[in-house]
Amino acid sequence: MKTKIYIDGSEGTTGLRINERLEGRDDIELLRIRPELRKDAAERQRMINASDITFLCLPDAAAREAVSLATGERVRIIDASTAHRTEPGWAYGFPELSAEFRERITQGKRVAVPGCHASGFMALVYPLVKEGLLPADYPVVSYSLTGYSGGGKKMIAAYEAEERPRELSSPRAYALTQQHKHLKEMKAIAGLAQEPLFTPIVADYYSGMAVFLPLAARLLSKEVTPDGLRSFYREYYAGQRFLHVLTEAETDALGGFLAGNARSGWDGMEIVVSGSGDRLFAASRFDNLGKGASGAAIQCMNLMLGCPEEKGLVLHSA
Fold this sequence. Notes:
With 318 residues, the chain is an alpha/beta fold. The chain is 33% helix and 21% strand. It contains ten helices and 13 strands. It has helices spanning 13-23, 41-50, 60-69, 99-107, 116-130, 152-160, 183-190, 226-236, 248-252, 290-305, and strands spanning 3-8, 28-31, 53-56, 76-79, 91-92, 110-112, 141-147, 172-173, 197-203, 209-216, 243-245, 269-276, 279-286. The strands form two sheets. Strands 8-9-7-10-13-12-11 form a seven-stranded mixed sheet. Strands 2-1-3-4-6-5 form a six-stranded parallel sheet, with helices on both faces. Helix 1 (13-23) packs across helix 10, helix 4 (99-107) packs across helix 10 and helix 5 packs parallel to helix 7. The longest helix has 16 residues, at 290-305.
């Protein structure tokens, strides 16, 4: 019997990508709402409750409303919005972080997909805090580089317009007030004592993301070198198909540069470690539309259905 899937918010960037990934699967039946009824609460409720799993690709308020439309917990919900990522009773959709995270997703009725920036940040910071290498009160500073698709349809249209402001041809830092919407989950899920200082940068390319974490080795709980940090991540993520920690040789082959768009089009994530002396550098690189959004949502769905978690996703060695 096919699993019935409804995508609430199927016209947005993430919803469209989830739809594309599911269309060719013979184990899935996609339930489609009539276009003129996309915002009709009664019809949305009917579709949600006719499904086995509903994906929410909506603004936060609409996502909360959608959850309230589900009758009981028979319908399992995967929410790609910010609304429920730190809410009690919701599994955080990053199974590689620990066996407990994976189990909560697999058994969960309510799963919140991480934010794209937060995914890259969590892959770097969560293991360090969990294993006691990074003190919870460490003054974490992070920044990221992302393609413009992460800004949704409005930003995509602005960047792809024939006539556009010249500033769009240059990387642009944003969230300058330090109020980025991912900060709450960055602090809560990673177990930090305070929100990190985080600066995202959007650049003139479609998709792909890199999140950067500079660290002062002298402030960590024990002495560690770049090689030691690389070994730490390789051991922590051993056996994880979606995460690849670059070897020293692979890192050297980058030639001292790290492009944000190099992993566009696939659904895994790679971790790069470098640095010199007391100054350590770690980065995660992935597709903001893949492991940072729709790919992560499909991975969670596969786990919930008992499928191979890579089913319908694009994975290859970095």
